[in-house]
Each structure stands twice: as C-alpha cells, then as structure tokens.
Amino acid sequence: MTQPNNSDIADLSYEQARDELAAVVSQLEQGGVALEESLALWERGEALANRCEEWLLGAKQRLTAAREAATAGQSEQA
C-alpha cells in the first residue's frame, strides 16, 4: 500500500486543500479500505484541514488589517 504524501500540502491553495479534504472525507465515509490506509487518509485529512484553517486565518488577518487601515484613514480625514 502507498501512503499519502503530506509534504505537498503547504503548496496547496485553499480551494485545492478544501476539495481534496472533501474527497478524503468521502472516501473514509464509503469505507472499504484497510485500517492502515484509513489511518493514512485520516492523517492527510487532518493536514488538509489545518491548511484550510491557515488560509482562513490569513484571510481574516488581512481583512482585519484592511478594516483598521480604512478606519484610520477615515479618522485622519475628520
């Protein structure tokens, strides 16, 4: 059995990680895979979920920074 390679996850976009995570979840829900493969898929799913969370946290930080900059710009104009 070939174990999934998790080293490529850091290079995935949010959409790529999200779509692959959905595929992993679907595969696990269908069952029919050996325990060892299920564990490898679970680990990959965890890594993909963490990657999605990193993207979302980064987006939230950028939005917060943009909002703060806009608020500061409005204060300076007043």
What portion of the residues fall into strands of 2 or more residues?
under 5%
Query: At the first level of CATH, what is the class?
Result: Mainly Alpha
Q: Just name the CATH architecture.
A: Orthogonal Bundle
CATH-defined fold name: Helix Hairpins
Main sheet properties: none
Distance between the termini: 66 Å
DSSP strand tally = 0
Mean pLDDT: 91
Query: How many domain regions?
Result: 1
How would you spell out the order of helices and strands?
A: HH
Shape: rod-shaped
The gyration radius over C-alpha positions equals 19 Å
Helical content class: over 70%
Q: How many alpha or pi helices?
A: 2
Low-confidence stretches: none
